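Good morning N.,

You mentioned wanting to compare the apo and holo forms, so I went ahead and generated the holo version with protoporphyrin IX containing FE. This is what I fed in:
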Amino acid sequence: MTEKVATASPRLVRRAPVAIGVLVTIVLVFAAMRVWLDWPNILAGTTPGDDFAERYVAHPRLAYLHIAPGVIYLLGAPLQLSRRFRTQHYDVHRRLGRVLLSCAFVAGLFALLFGVPHAWGGAPEAAATVVFGSWFLACLALAFRAIRRKDVRLHRRWMIRAFAVGIGIGTIRIWVGIFEGVEQTLSGGTTPGTPDPTMFGIAFWLAFTMHVALGEWWLRRAPALTG
Ligand code: HEM
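and this is what came out, ligand included:
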């Protein structure tokens, strides 16, 4: 008797790049907003009015050694994961891979160094950062080990897991937006509510848990694309 393996529908497979594009765009918009809001203060040595931005201005090295390499990694990773790109430009894939893997490691390390002591969402955010930041770094390390052993299939699977966590940052912002909208509706206000630190921490857990699960789901449902 043959075991029936469930696979992702072709429509879903076609939509995955669109979803990834949307999430990467969200991350880019928030990264650009951070630069726009923080750097005038960092350069002038002034303190911003809101306590969310204050941490980025007070610890620019920690914050931007997370954001800048993270953005480079997120921009390059979709190309690396494309089967067509890998087969047509294998040398570029290898060279770019070294750069992007290094960027991802630095981004993950500084996610811990900035996100744990300076978490705006307090203990829930700091805990989520330890759990998912460590998972992100572990996936990268295992992907590196696999390719050193010339196990291309395993390398690709760990890279997909790392990427699933990385784009989770976009989904955090979606959850924060939903919470702000709900707060606005409940308070009857006309402008979105300010993100509450507890909501921010919850958004971290929801988004990253979803993304780890989605990564596993993708690896099971689209084996032809990931194997
Ligand atoms: C790899 C791609 C990543 C990119 C491009 C990225 C980008 C960013 C950006 C733009 C911010 C500023 C947040 C905002 O203003 O909304 C941020 C903050 C943060 N990121 Fe990442 N990130 C990435 C991965 C990760 C990972 C894997 C973790 C670990 C779980 C993480 C943890 C954090 C933390 C803790 C903060 C600080 C949030 C705060 O309290 O303000 N990031 N990241």
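DSSP finds ten helices and no strands in the chain.

Happy to go through it together on a call whenever suits you.

Best,
F.
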